[in-house]
Amino acid sequence: MLRDMSGVSTASPFESARQPGPEPARVLAGGEPHVEVLELAKHELRDISRDPEVRAVAPVMPTMLIQPFENGADERATAEAAAAAATWGVKAVGADVSTRTGADVIVAVLDTGIDGNHPAFTGVTLIQEDFSGSGVGDKQGHGTHCAGTIFGRAVAGTRIGVAPGVTRAVIGKVLADDGSGDTEGLLRGMEWALRQGAQVISMSLGFDFPGMVQRLVDLGRQPKFATSLALEAYRANLRLFDALMRMVAAREAVSSGTLVVAAAGNESERQTGPDFEIAVSLPAAAEGVIAVGALAQSPTGNGLVVAPFSNTFPQISAPGVGVVSARVGGGLRSLSGTSMATPHVAGVAALWWEEVMKSPLPATSSTVLARLLANAAVSPLASGVDIADRGVGLVRSP
Predict the structure, then answer these.
(1) d(CA 294, CA 304)
(2) Which of 61, 274, 346, 389 is the most buried if burial means most Cβ atoms within 10 Å?
(3) Are 15 and 52 in contact (CB under 8 A)?
(4) C-alpha to C-alpha distance for 107 and 200, rounded to whole angstroms
(5) What is the helix (H) or strand (E) element at residue 357, kind and residue range?
(6) Sign of the CA dihedral 311, 317, 318, 319?
């Protein structure tokens, strides 16, 4: 259950808690989300949904990391990156020539945690919290790789981070060591990150719709009923995330605001045929979330192309194939996925935050988002890349 706590004590006993109009007036003064998990009967659900503080109610759904791809090119890509001054992704988004580094920007990574002892994070104050039940730290490696792309320092002379000037990072472990989680952990992580003052929240994860169907089947539900129940839960969670993102947007009235960036998903199979495309999934599909697609270097050298696995209808795109970043335990590794593209956008968002904060423009998330989208480039893309597959284009640094 998602509550808005921003107006809890503002109404007198003789005032209506709900103001006229599509949204309560107190939300416009800045939403303060609070997540509660309850067991409710159907009649209780109807009653609680009438509470004016309640923005949305949805069943808990499983989540999971958006599984990246590793292949035989891993060692070669890592060796090539080690021989270069910066990874191809850092260069592609223009971070290597930007005058901004992400200084004084607070970034949150909601993932599998982080290897705080990795040299890539030397000098970064890491604020860690576990919402998965498996303890802080990263045994899976996904969160460490993503964090390295956002704000990692150079490793063995190779720049891996888009915004290496970030000195304060909020690390919410919302996925367990096996990469699994649920919406309770994710929502609590987002609530916590907002309270920590995060200006950018990066999420390379998705809702596990097939997993929920299978879980219901395992509990004895017939497949058609299991699918219907999972669809109902997915729909309710989409509405909940839409409500949460409206509250995030409303916070800009009382603070600088927050940009939320999420991976579009890896379920498409364009190598099979043009009809094998899947649209952006939750949470990237929610209102106000910046959905990120993945780009790859063309084998012919004629520009960047959409990765075959990248889901369609992203808002913006970034390098997502052969991305070299931090490995748990030290060193570097190469991974591919929209999970790898998302931290490039989060890092560039940090650069734009710094740019805006040092300009006469209003230092708000709306300003940063406008600059982020308006400066995306299409010229580096190969001819024939569909706008539906790459969004406004390749994210670019100030």
Answers:
(1) 10
(2) 346
(3) no
(4) 5
(5) helix 338-357
(6) positive
Catalytic residues: 111, 142, 339
DSSP secondary structure string for all residues of 93-141: TTGGG-S---TT-EEEEEES---TTSGGGTT-EEEEEE-SSS-SS-SSS
Give Dmax (Cα) for the chain. 71
**Would you call the peptide bond into 283 cis, given omega within 30 degrees of 0 as the criterion?**
yes
Angstrom distance (rounded) from CA 30 to CA 151? 29
Strand, coil or helix: 394: strand
Predicted TM-score of the model (pTM): 0.90
Long-range contacts of 68-76 (CB under 8 A, 24+ apart): 68/142, 68/145, 68/266, 68/335, 68/336, 68/337, 68/339, 68/340, 69/266, 69/309, 69/335, 69/336, 69/337, 70/333, 70/334, 70/335, 70/336, 71/336, 73/322, 73/334, 74/333, 74/334, 74/335, 75/334
Condensed to tens digits (0 to 9), the pLDDT of residues 122-177 reads 999 999 999 999 999 999 999 999 999 999 999 999 999 999 999 999 999 999 99
Q: Which amino acid is at 143?
A: G
